[in-house]
Write a sequence for this structure.
């Protein structure tokens, strides 16, 4: 099912909507946000200069630092009294990034998330367990409102207390799970430890995963744990843009459809800012064209992807973004080789004998970069054979070298010995940053 007619409009019609909304939004920002007005003036560009959609490239970018410089409400275009909700992104250092919603923004957010849930196969009969942490993170309440709007029954389980979550899931007959992919894997493992077969004893048939990437091998792990009946899709979003609801995969699994009547997506070269063409990989830049409180224009997401404009088999005509390959600030440069953690994950998870949990440690020894990867064995019995462990280590090392051109020290560890995450996983520690 397709939730809204806007998802199937011919390209020219969607672009007409985008241009009209962009012009309106731009005027509002120019009037109300001094920081953006200054940027436009400095760039010598006026609102009237945007006559076609391509003219968007004349506009200055907005970056996270703009949000920090104007903390907390400086990028907002409405008065504080018009806000009905405030969230913040979990800044690891310093102040968080604050985002706000008017009543109308809440309706748009809800609509966008409902569309995405629908793309992933959800319907009003689903019992949806939300296992994102409730709080300042936009994930939980975003999915909560979207699924309720669809008519699903929502269980606001939040994250953590995993055994109890499995009990809710079983007793309340949950059919749909919302979680980060890493937490969903952990939940599946805990269910098994409790003596349950998630595929048979639980009724989860839809997984709406997001907040972090899910590589294809990770999706395969999801089927292995939760059963082949699972429809596992992922969706993408960002607090600054709206939260979840920017884009989501349909069941064709060929990229995430962007809600283009609310967001304009561009891909740029992260080094030069130059706009790249369809199919070219670069940094995703998004303009919010319908929000009232915080309509950021040309916001640099830092996420690396590509855009495909061909209509999808599902019937939607909206542009699709490829699964995120990483963030521009996550890219590791190890002895001169550029690599995203997701690429390392792809190599690791193709090795049958190891599970989906790993930790990457990067350090510098004698002025040389050094990478150590701890990976969990899928089966404890392998630990008994020293020879086969050595052979497996060599095989993983060789795949990494062949596919990525990288050398790493591989440490195989016992199943269930690495840290598990209830929200977004943190798998990389780069100690070079402190040196
Ligand atoms: O993670 C919003 C969200 C919640 C989206 C739940 C989907 C589901 P932030 O906490 O601001 O917002 O983090 C945004 O998370 O720039 C990406 O780097 C990453 N991210 C989110 N979804 C995906 C995904 C939410 N499907 C940042 N694939 C973004 C890869 C993702 N990365």
């Amino acid at each position: 099912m397709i939730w809204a007619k806007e998802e199937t409009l011919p390209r020219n019609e969607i672009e007409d909507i985008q241009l009209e909304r962009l012009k309106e939004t731009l005027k509002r920002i120019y009037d109300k946000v001094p920081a953006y007005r200054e940027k436009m003036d400095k760039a010598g560009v006026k609102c009237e200069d945007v006559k076609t959609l391509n003219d968007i490239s004349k506009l200055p970018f907005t970056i996270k630092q703009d949000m920090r410089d104007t903390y907390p409400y400086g990028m907002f275009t409405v008065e504080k009294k018009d806000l009905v909700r405030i969230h913040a992104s979990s800044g690891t250092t310093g102040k968080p990034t604050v985002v706000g919603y008017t009543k109308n923004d809440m309706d748009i957010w809800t609509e966008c998330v409902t569309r995405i849930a629908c793309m992933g196969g959800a319907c009003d009969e689903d019992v949806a367990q939300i296992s994102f942490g409730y709080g300042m993170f936009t994930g939980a309440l975003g999915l909560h409102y979207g699924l309720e709007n669809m008519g699903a029954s929502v269980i606001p389980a939040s994250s953590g207390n995993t055994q109890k979550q499995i009990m809710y899931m079983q007793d309340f007959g949950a059919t749909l799970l919302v979680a980060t992919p890493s937490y969903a894997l952990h939940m599946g493992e805990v269910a098994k430890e409790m003596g349950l077969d998630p595929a048979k004893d639980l009724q989860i048939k839809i997984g709406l995963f997001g907040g972090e990437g899910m590589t294809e091998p990770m999706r395969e792990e999801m089927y292995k744990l939760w059963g082949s009946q699972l429809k596992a899709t992922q969706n993408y979003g960002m607090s600054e843009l709206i939260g979840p609801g920017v884009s989501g995969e349909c069941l064709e699994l060929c990229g995430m459809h962007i809600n283009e009547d609310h967001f304009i997506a561009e891909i740029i070269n992260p080094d030069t800012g130059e706009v790249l063409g369809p199919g070219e990989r670069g940094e995703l830049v998004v303009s919010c064209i319908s929000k009232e409180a915080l309509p950021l224009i040309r916001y640099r997401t830092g996420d690396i992807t590509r855009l495909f404009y061909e209509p999808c088999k599902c019937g939607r005509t909206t542009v699709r973004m490829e699964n995120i390959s990483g963030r521009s600030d996550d890219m590791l440069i190890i002895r001169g080789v550029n690599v995203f953690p997701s690429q390392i994950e792809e190599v690791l998870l193709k090795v049958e004998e190891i599970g989906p949990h790993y930790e990457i440690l990067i350090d510098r020894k004698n002025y040389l970069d050094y990478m150590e990867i701890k990976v969990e064995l899928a089966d404890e019995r392998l630990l008994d054979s020293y020879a086969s462990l050595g052979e497996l280590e060599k095989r993983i090392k060789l795949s990494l070298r062949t596919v990525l051109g990288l050398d790493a020290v591989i440490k195989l560890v016992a199943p269930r010995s690495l840290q598990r995450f209830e929200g977004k996983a943190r798998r990389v520690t780069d100690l070079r940053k402190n040196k």
